Amino acid sequence: MNTTPQQPPLELKREDLFVSPIYRGNDTSWLTLDKECDTIIDKVKKSYKEKLQKKEIQTLPNSYHSENLWQHEKFKPFVEYIMQQMWNILNWQGYDLRNKKPLLQECWVQEFPKEGGFHDIHIHSNNHMSGFYFLQCSSKTSRPSFHDPRPGKTMTDLPTINSKKISFGSNIINYSVKPGDFIFFNSYMPHAYSHYVSEGKIIWRLKTILKIGFLHNGKLKCLQIMSGKFII
Q: Which is it for strands 219-228 and 64-65: parallel, antiparallel or unpaired?
């Protein structure tokens, strides 16, 4: 059976509605936070090792993460910078932010062990903006991947002609990153980190009405601005 359309295509005008944008940029000036993150995450590692020796836990965790970092004075300029970028993006997207202000909920650093780590696909609920800032990366570290947020498309999806080429039919995309890279996205966007044996760090989660965070992934370091939210 010939499935190729036999009729000439109708001249149509395409309108790209309900898109899911991802914003990327680079600013290496914040890489100075790397040393401060090392000090904080080393304390977390030490605490888990002591718990393991005392048999309070059976195994070491899949990842190490700190307490909220917004309470540290050295991170306050970064947090203010991130909150402004998130405000800019939501404003560009057409949201009315008058009489609203961003509220920071969490900000922490996380590190994956050298044995490998990962984050399964998830979203940041009850938030508006999320993101990452990468402190250390290499070709061996986990890549951030983003998944189609439309459940209706997922339920009835078809295979694409070329899965290696980004198209309107694509259901996943991942990015190679370098130190100083920012990635911002709306918090409803499903995302994940693949399981890689690597060395690197990420500043991983920020929570708020803005949620920021830090993730260490072997030698992958990245500041993950996890989510931002606005309140009246």
A: unpaired
Model confidence pLDDT, tens digit, residues 108-117: 777 776 666 6
| Structural domains of the chain, count | 1
pLDDT in tens, 119-159: 788 888 878 888 888 887 777 777 889 999 999 998 999 99
**108 within a domain of the structure (yes/no):** yes
> What is the chain's length?
232
Tokens of 115: 């044995």
Is residue 92 in some structural domain?
yes
112 beta partners: 217
Q: Please give the Cα distance from 108 to 2 (Å, whole number).
A: 56
CATH value at residue 90: 2.60.120.620
Q: Which regions of 44-153 does DSSP assign to beta strands (E)?
A: 64-65, 101-102, 104-112, 117-122, 129-136, 144-147
Does the pTM of the predicted model rise above 0.85?
no
